[in-house]
Amino acid sequence: MCEVAVDHAGRGVASSDLLQRGQDRTHLEAFILETRPYWRALVCRDCDRDATGPLCRSHLTTTRGVDLGEEVRALRDRIDGIGRHLVRYARSFR
Ligand SMILES: [Zn+2]
Predict the structure, then answer these.
(1) Which of 42, 73, 78, 93 has the smallest C-beta neighbourhood within 10 Å, fewest atoms?
(2) How far is ligand 1, taken at its centre, from the CA of residue 80, in Å?
(3) What pTM does this model have?
(4) What is the 49 CA–ligand 1 centroid distance (Å)?
(5) What is the whole-number distance in angstroms between the Cα of residue 45 and the centre of ligand 1?
(6) What is the Å distance from ligand 1's center to 39 Cα?
(7) C-alpha of residue 57 to centroid of ligand 1, in Å
(8) Distances in whole angstroms, Cα of residue 2 to Cα of each of 8, 11, 13
(9) φ/ψ of residue 12, rounded to 5
(10) Which tens digit of pLDDT belongs to each residue from 51-87?
(11) Any alpha helices (H) in the chain, and if so which ranges?
């Protein structure tokens, strides 16, 4: 990098076009909406009252009356589901 004096260019090797596209939130917002059904079920129900997901670590340790065994079992089931999905996704490239 020093040999091509990138550090003196200020914007690195990114073109102005690439930097401009990086500031455009359109694609990110479309991605968020498109994938919402997948991540929405995992949002902590105490962080967002409309959510139904498992408690986040912070709420898991501070919320009273929580059945920790049930929460851990639910989290394990969800993580297992994510794992199965990732395996299926990885195998789809074969
Ligand atoms: Zn939370």
Answers:
(1) 93
(2) 20
(3) 0.57
(4) 10
(5) 6
(6) 14
(7) 7
(8) 9, 14, 12
(9) 70, -150
(10) 988 899 899 889 888 898 998 898 899 899 999 999 9
(11) 6-9, 16-23, 26-39, 57-62, 68-91
